[in-house]
Amino acid sequence: MKIALDAMGGDFAPDQVVAGGVQAHRELGVEVIFVGVKDKVDAALAASGAGKWAQIEDAPEVIAMDEHPAQAVRSKKASSIVRGIQMVEDGRVSGFVSAGNSGAVMAAALFGLHRIPGIDRPAIGSIIPTATGQNCFLLDVGANTDAKPEHLVQYALMGSIYAEKLMGLKAPRVALLSNGEEEGKGDELVKETAKRLKGSLPGFIGNVEPKDIYASKADVIVADGFVGNIAIKMAEATADFLFRNLREEIPKTTRGKIGGLLIRNGVRKLRDRIDWREFGGAPLLGIDGIAVVAHGRSDARAVKNAIRVAKEAVENQLVSKIRAEVGK
């Protein structure tokens, strides 16, 4: 299987991104094609100790994180994002992975791969760990900040398919993120979406509050991209805040140092269980092809896992299964 990797995307590109691609090749058996500025990718490959297997697709232009997505995609045809998507479109690779400008990835995918028939807007999902150990899937986390009820209905369907096919959940429970779990709570978007989902989507259980996400009351949580993006960033910031303060406070006293040694393994296991880098990224759902969006702060481990997500999406025929269900 061939996967194109945006070597120039993300805060730590190209060194960490390329290192993640090399890890994916060695550990997952994926043939990674590195898309980016050739001399910079060459240097990163040499530093990572890659062998002669490494292939580079020269892309002399780079789309920065702060550029306007659609304008950048139109003006920078030789960028790593545009060329990576073109490789999927041309059938040269099975999927594309980028930790770069997520809006540009979506724009390039819309222009090059187009939407699955019946899907109006794509969505980006994110894996959320829960107290029970069973992860849930939150979408949309930023593809579209303005959404209509019909879009959220489509997100719910695609999220259900993702949870079943890639997370291995039978009959996944689907819920809307709201300010109250009672029927009738939420803004007009949530209320109207709930009416449309009730009785039409198997597994729809109504509303959940943010606290219910971690209590594993639903397997798929649906929100518009504005709410979903704030929710996921707040969760990441809270986790970082807690672990940073633990590291700073525990060693301040002798008793704390001793206690820290006793709980070190448990804290490490907990940190690993909620570490977003383990989840890598998520396919851009609703696009007629595999394009995985990774976190902008992705290091080598996160990039490797994002490539794993792309590999699993291809192997599980995610796009064709979404196309078939939407067609019904």
Key attributes of the depicted protein:
alpha/beta, 11 strands, globular
Distance between the termini: 30 Å
Q: What proportion of the residues is helical, as a percent range?
A: 40-55%
Rounded to the nearest angstrom, the radius of gyration is 20 Å
Which CATH-level-2 architecture of one domain? Answer: 3-Layer(aba) Sandwich
Secondary-structure-derived class:
alpha/beta
Query: Can you count the helices?
Result: 12
Give the overall pLDDT as a whole number.
89
Order of helices and strands: EHEHEHHEHEEHEHEHEHHEEHH
The largest beta-sheet arranges its strands as 3-2-1-4-11-10-5-6-9-7-8
What's the CATH class label of one domain?
A: Alpha Beta
Strand share of the residues? 15-25%
The coarse overall form would be globular
CATH 4th-level superfamily of one domain: Isopropylmalate Dehydrogenase
CATH topology of one domain: Isopropylmalate Dehydrogenase
Parts with pLDDT < 50 across at least 5 consecutive residues: none
| Main β sheet profile | 11 strands, mixed
Q: How many β-strand runs?
A: 11
What is the topological layout?
Blueprint: E1 2-6, H1 15-28, E2 31-36, H2 38-48, E3 55-58, H3 69-75, H4 80-89, E4 95-98, H5 102-112, E5 123-128, E6 136-139, H6 149-165, E7 174-177, H7 188-197, E8 204-208, H8 210-214, E9 220-222, H9 225-249, H10 254-274, E10 281-285, E11 291-294, H11 300-315, H12 318-327
What can you see in these coordinates?
It is a single chain. This protein has 328 residues and is of the alpha/beta class. It has a domain at 1-119 and 286-328: Isopropylmalate Dehydrogenase. 48% of the residues lie in helices and 15% in strands. The mean pLDDT is 89.
